[in-house]
Amino acid sequence: METGRVSPMKPKRNTSKKNLVENVSEPLIGQNGLSTSPVSPSGNILDSVILATPGLKRRLTRRMIYTPAKYKDEDEYIGFATLPEQVHRKAVRKGFDFTLMVVGESGLGKSTVINSLFLSDLYKDRELPSVNDLVERTVNIEKKQLEIEEKGVRLKLTIVDTPGFNDAVNAGNSQKSLIEYVDKQFEQYYEDECGLNRRNIVDNRVHCCLYFISPYGHGLRQIDIETMKKLHHKVNIVPLLAKADILTKEELRRMKNRILQEIEENHIQIYEFPDCDSDEDEDFKQQDRELKASIPFAVVGCNTVVEAGGKKIRGRAYPWGIVEVDNPNHCDFIRLRQMLISTHMQDLKDVTSDVHYENYRALHIRTQLGSAQKERGKLKRDSAANFEALSDTEKLLEQKEAEIQRMQQMLAKMQEQLKASSPQQQHVNGLGKL
């Protein structure tokens, strides 16, 4: 071992059902190789939203465990090699936050998939609405918070459910509540950043949106296209094909291709996986390729345990066989859980912070500056109007003063004439007396 270096140890991959350990990844630049810049190339701060930087992409690295190395000569050891350990201890002590939004119409198994992902029962008290309630049902926002601890790592998980989405007869404004909620979280985070207590900011921003697509149609519906087009600039969208067990393998393949084609035709930006590091082993690269090829994830949710072949498995029993939830040959549920929890959770948070929130922040500052400029323009116009009114008043005063001066001059002339005529009048009066 060379002096002044730390020997990283690659741990075995943990494939447990509740692997919520955060990954330590390299600093991100932005989604699709986009970088955030405070000033645009034109030098105008108003145009600085997200600028593309060619050749700069996000990288996905696995969590590395650093062990302190022993050195023969202590004089050659500086000590900064323990910085990753310090960052790791601080992050574990603070804990992690993650907010997940679930969007989709009723009956697609959203609650079952969420319970299967986090091995919990978050919707045990939910009551199904009646037919009369569905006629004019509005979209509600329901938040469920769950604190999970695994191997000393604490995760505060927030599930944002949207019951009522696309359930009413007229569902044209179903996405309005979703957009308002996402913007409200950005606004609250911006106010906390600008406030006095910046050390204890609670991050309630939506880091990922699981969008459930119905398997009963022939691709995306119009409501799906409109909703994703209004959300893709605000949140990371991960499309899911719900209830994949009702489709054959050939139907599933055609459905996935159709969904991807419609997403591309409508210019919808879904979450893109970062590239894998070149020095990773072949197994990790193959796993990354499988995750990218599984989009949209075909999921099957189930919380019941059945017995097959002498062992208990989690799945659904049908007359023709059993669909195993954790079997990658039956559905993509295990790949979704691996992506969402084990490998890409930190990347989802970084993209939210570096891309979506920065876009909102730049737009918010631009709007504030535009409002300030309009206010200043209004004040200038009002000042000009007041100045014109004042000028008219001054002109009237000047005319009055000129008129007064003319009258004073006329009065002075009349007095002089009276004075000049006074001696002559006295002389005439004297002659009359004689």
Question: What does the model show?
Answer:
The protein has helices at residues 83-94, 110-118, 131-135, 174-194, 222-231, 249-265, 282-293, 333-343, 345-433, and strands spanning 8-9, 34-35, 51-52, 59-60, 65-66, 96-103, 142-150, 153-161, 208-213, 237-241, 275-276, 297-298, 305-308, 311-318, 321-324. Strands 7-8-6-9-10-12 form a six-stranded mixed sheet, with helices on both faces. The termini are far apart. The chain has nine helices and 15 strands. Strand 9, helix 5 (222-231) and strand 10 (237-241) form a beta-alpha-beta unit. Helices cover 43% and strands 15% of the residues. Keywords: Cell cycle, Cell division, Cytoplasm, GTP-binding, Nucleotide-binding. It comes from Biomphalaria pfeifferi (Bloodfluke planorb). Residues 94-367 form the Septin-type G domain.
Quick tags:
434 residues, alpha/beta, six-stranded mixed beta sheet, three-stranded antiparallel beta sheet, 9 helices, 15% strand, elongated, disordered N terminus, GTP-binding, cytoplasm, nucleotide-binding, Septin, cell division
Q: Brief overview, please?
A:
This protein is an alpha/beta fold.
List the helices and strands and how they pair.
Layout: E1 8-9, E2 34-35, E3 51-52, E4 59-60, E5 65-66, H1 83-94, E6 96-103, H2 110-118, H3 131-135, E7 142-150, E8 153-161, H4 174-194, E9 208-213, H5 222-231, E10 237-241, H6 249-265, E11 275-276, H7 282-293, E12 297-298, E13 305-308, E14 311-318, E15 321-324, H8 333-343, H9 345-433
Parallel strand pairs: 4-11, 6-8, 6-9, 9-10, 10-12
Antiparallel strand pairs: 1-5, 2-3, 7-8, 13-14, 14-15
